[in-house]
Write a structure and sequence with these properties.
108 residues, alpha+beta, 3-stranded antiparallel beta sheet, 6 helices, 3 strands
């Protein structure tokens, strides 16, 4: 049986802690559909700008999201596409009816 290096386990635990908050998970779920600016994220999460900014900053420092400035707006997107897979797995576990509906819609 292959062992997983302790450093990799620590990194994974740190990454999971970085997203283990309701607002940060909500942000990831919304960013799954593409980049969004702070105003859009405030609207869909109902978070205050200061609260949202703190969480976005933490996620950015952890390398989970990145931001791009477009004119006066800052847009956020998921940094590593593998986080999309993680969001999908969480959605299948905790929102099976929503996931099932999205699969049926994709079948056309």
């Amino acid at each position: 049986m292959q062992t997983i290096p302790e450093e990799n386990i620590k990194d994974a635990a740190q990454g999971l802690r970085a997203i283990a908050h309701e607002l940060r998970l909500a942000v990831l779920c919304h960013l799954k559909n593409g980049p969004m600016c702070v105003n859009e994220l405030m609207e869909v999460t109902a978070a205050s700008q200061s609260n949202l900014s703190q969480h976005l900053s933490k996620m950015r420092m952890m390398g989970i999201i990145v931001n791009d400035k477009r004119g006066q707006q800052v847009y956020y997107r998921i940094a590593n596409p593998e986080f999309l897979s993680l969001v999908d797995v969480l959605r299948r576990i905790y929102c099976p009816e929503a996931y099932q509906g999205s699969l049926e819609g994709a079948k056309g």
